[in-house]
Each structure stands twice: as C-alpha cells, then as structure tokens.
Amino acid sequence: MPKLPLVDMAGKVVGDIELKDGVFNADYKESLIHQIYVGLMANKRHGTHDTKGKGEVRGGGKKPWRQKGTGNARHGSRRSPIWKGGGVTFGPTPRKYTQVLPKTMRHAAMRSALSQRVRESNFTALSEVKLDGYKTRPIVEMLKQLTQDDHSVSTSHTLILIGSQDKVVMKSAANIPGVEVIVADLVNVVHIVNSKRILATKDAIKKLEEVLS
C-alpha cells in the first residue's frame, strides 16, 4: 500500500497518508488511457459544422451559356463546386461524434493514470487548502513551496484536487497560468493526463478512493 507524506500549504510535513492499492497502485495501461482520453474529447464536440452542397446553394437556375459554340467549357449551373460561390464538395455536415465509454473502463483508466502520477512522484497529498478570502498570493506561495515552480511564468500544468466545492479557492486560483482546481468527483482522465503534477487534499483522496474502489 503506497504511503505519502501529508504536507500543509507551507510545504511542511504534518503526517502521512496511506493510499489504496487498488486505486493508486494500478498497472499502467497506456492504450486504455488513450482510448478514454480520445473518447472524452470526442464527446465534447457538438458536431454542428455544416457546409452547403451544390443542391443547397442559392441561385444557378439558368445555364451560364449554351452548350456549344462559345469556345468555353460546358457548364450546367453556377452552383457547381468549381465556380466561385458554388457548393462545397464533400464538405462537413452535422454529425455525432459521441463514443460509448463504459464506467468500468473510465474508472480503470483513472486508476491507471493516477497510479502513474504517484509512481512518477508527481502526486502530492495536502492536509487541506483553506483561504481566509479571495487571495491569489497564498495559492502562488503554496505552489512555489510544493512544486518549485513560479506559476506566474510557468507553462507547466498543475491540477489541484479538493474534496468539495470551494468558491474561494477555485476563484483565487482561476487567474494563475497553468493551474486548475477541480472537485475530486468531477475529475476525469483528460484532466489527469494534461497535468504534469497533482496536488490533492486528504478529503479529495478519500473521495477518489470511494468512487474508484
């Protein structure tokens, strides 16, 4: 059973926490993670793209010129795709991109991705993230202590997982480049894969273990 030091916002060790093997010590399954990642991204697409084909373009009822005798190539309609303003050949039309992603597969991919972050030492357990008011500086100072990055100029992505909705924390971190705060039960494989490091509170870890066990 993996064990991680539990640190506070100042980076001081205040204890340790044991992680469930089934959630944070799962085998790395790259193909499964890729399949779920692609599926989740596809499910975000609205599929409302549309272009007009030859039969949908306005006008073009009259033949541009007679068939023979003009020296020009023969044409039957100005709606032809080779004319300016004509229809589009094989253009995109509305369609659904939805992929079926069973919960067992999504959870397995989550366990695999989280376990890989733990093995890479890019998963930090926090005792809590608590602010007195809407202040960005405490979050920036915490990130400097825990990640050794200056997120005012850093392009690395840090994912902060909290146990429940906290508007103060979420809004305070909203304008820090490369930082995203998400409630644990709303996180998915896309968030984990796109992040280079994860900071999770003790409550968030418990919630992940409850959902993914």
Report on this model:
With about 210 residues, the chain is of the alpha/beta class. It has two domains: about 5-45 and about 100-210, Ribosomal Protein L4, Chain: A, CATH 3.40.1370; about 45-95, no CATH class. The chain has helices spanning about 20-25, 30-45, 105-120, 135-145, 165-170, 190-195, 200-210; strands at about 5, 15-20, 125, 160, 180-185, 195-200. Strands 2-1-3-6-4-5 form a six-stranded mixed β-sheet. It starts with a strand and ends with a helix.
Uncertain runs are: none
In spatial order, strands of the major sheet run: 2-1-3-6-4-5
CATH domain class name of the largest domain: Alpha Beta
* CATH architecture type of the largest domain: 3-Layer(aba) Sandwich
- Cα gyration radius (Å): 27 Å
Domains, number? 2
- Give the mean pLDDT: 92
- The percent range for helix content is 25-40%
The H-level CATH homologous superfamily of the largest domain, spelled out, is Ribosomal protein L4/L1
**CATH topology label of the largest domain:** Ribosomal Protein L4, Chain: A
Q: What gross morphology would you assign?
A: elongated
Succession of helices and strands:
EEHHHEHEHEHEH
How many helices in DSSP terms?
Answer: 7
Terminus-to-terminus distance: 14 Å
Total number of strands = 6
* Main β-sheet description: 6 strands, mixed
Structural class computed from helices and strand pairing: alpha/beta
Strand content: 5-15%
List keywords for this structure.
single chain, 213 residues, alpha/beta, Ribosomal Protein L4, Chain: A, 2 domains, six-stranded mixed beta sheet, elongated
